[in-house]
């Protein structure tokens, strides 16, 4: 699908071969805050998840895609979650796993591709995301793609023995 191909990266469906990559992300405690994860995931559970990843977004209310470079390296993931067909909206989450792969434009390109796909192929009216106030890189990424901060959820995320505020951002397809 050409709509999910960019200059540096492309977005693709999860494959059984992604088990180790998915396991390394889901069990990286440094990023549990982003996904509200509390406990590690086993290979068994993730294998079951992968076996169901082919299901339609309208059925499972989620679409998880791998961000891959053209050499075939999985760089991260981008998700649509809480897909709401009736109200024509979904949440967006993105992660580029390795520090050396960040600030290279991969996340920006992945987000641009997902926005275009969401508005043209899924006919969504709006996308939203939740970002802790200390995550400046994500705030810049989403605001540079037209997302507007529409609210602040105080003491929303408990992480490292403290509460953090979280911003709600929204992009409406005009």
UniProtKB/TrEMBL annotation:
GO MF entries: acyltransferase activity, transferring groups other than amino-acyl groups
**What SUPFAM superfamilies does the entry give?**
Acyl-CoA N-acyltransferases (Nat)
According to the entry, every stretch annotated as the N-acetyltransferase domain falls at: 9-170
Q: Does the keyword Chloroplast apply?
A: no
Q: Which InterPro entries match?
A: Acyl_CoA_acyltransferase, GNAT_dom
Under the heading Pfam families, the entry gives:
Acetyltransf_3
Task: Give the UniProt keywords, A-Z.
Answer: Transferase
- The superkingdom of the source organism is Bacteria
Q: Does the keyword Repeat apply?
A: no
- Tell me the protein's name: Diamine N-acetyltransferase
Q: Which organism is it from?
A: Gelidibacter algens
